[in-house]
Amino acid sequence: MVSNTYNAGSIEVLEGLEPVRKRPGMYIGGTDVHGLHHLVYEIVDNSVDEAMQGYGNRINITIHADGSMSVRDFARGIPTDMHAKLKVSALEVVMTTLHAGGKFDSGAYVQSGGLHGVGASVVNALSEWCRVDVHRNGKIYRQDYVRGKAKARVKIVGEATDTGTFTAFKPDPEIFDTTEFEYETLSQRFREMCYLNKGLMITFRDDRPEKENEYTFYFEGGIMSFVRHLNKNRNVVNQSPIYIEKKQGTSSAEVALQYNDSYSESIFSFANNIHTVDGGAHLTGFRGALTRTLNDYARKSGILKENDTNLSGDDVREGLTAIVSVRLSNPQFEGQTKGKLNNADIKTLTEQATAEGLMQYLEENPSDARRIIEKCLNAARARDAARKARDVVRKNTGESSTLPGKLADCSERDPARSEIYIVE
């Protein structure tokens, strides 16, 4: 029964990480398998952010036999010294406090995927247990947590010969519909990360009984290798992917694209290594520049005549495989799950990079350019033929219907022999 009383006592204040446990969907998108995997991405993204700054190019990830997950990097390691304001170790602050982290200070991270300071603490809050070992200053610092709360203060448990952070956690069955990680789904994400970061090496192991598996991902070719991988079972139009890169201040845009003989488009966009599944400003900039540049080249080279209609966006994207990856210092995502990028300035950068780089490629490779334009023209012709076929079907349907003959489509060209019927 709903109470009619609504006063100051009705206002509940959630302390610490309780908001996360109360409303997990706000932070990880849901409590299904996608939300479960999002926990892993949050921790791995932190390690990749370190690699983007030039600290550590190796990450070891393991699904353990008990269903827990661990991530080990070889970067700087989370600071463990005393936090001046909160009077506890900085490690405990990072793991138990929302909106606490190094991503707010532009000096610590020029570019990063994490920005709200909630990633590690959310994972901690939604885990049955969590353990963090920090290798730093020649020591190994450890702290254990249960459902987001520290069991004890940070302690030194050994000597360290390297640096980095080891994070292990087991998702809380009280929160998630399932706590079983999908190896193939996670593998795909880690493969993407290595494509997006040249020289990054990720080793992913599965130690669960009857599921033992291990992959190491490492790609020197970056997003060009990514496009080749996506097109490996297709007949391609341009043999080598077109690669474009442009930097401007602390921002950069990378584009790789290749056409194949299929009828569908495969375009994936990323911002600071985060897969922006809903696109955003960078994808809009790429699409606009692609359509405009191919039309400009087709007219300049005489493939499109004066009276020909311009190619549409659908025409130029048919059979296209492309990766659009941008990096910027202050990304504006929609929500913590970061599905869409809203920075207006990155649209301009991506648009300029695509237009300049693509036009240069087309002019330097006229045979590839002609094949690409012909592919687009075939798509336009097919679309036009389909439209005309629909019109014919519509007219035939109208003529064979039970409507009076005077309401059928007019086939007489001479206005003097035609009448207009206005039907209310």
Number of structurally distinct domains: 2
Mean pLDDT: 87
Structural class: alpha+beta
What would you report as the Rg, rounded to the nearest angstrom?
28 Å
CATH homology superfamily of the largest domain: Histidine kinase-like ATPase, C-terminal domain
The first-to-last residue Cα distance is 54 Å
| Major sheet attributes | 9 strands, mixed
Pick out the low-confidence regions.
none
Q: State the CATH topology of the largest domain.
A: Heat Shock Protein 90
Written as H for each helix and E for each strand, in order along the chain, the element string is: HHHEEHHEEEEEHEEHEEEEHHEHH
Beta content comes to: 15-25%
CATH-level-2 architecture of the largest domain: 2-Layer Sandwich
Instruction: Count every beta strand, where a strand is a DSSP E run of 2 or more residues.
Output: 14
**Share of helix among residues?**
25-40%
CATH class of the largest domain: Alpha Beta
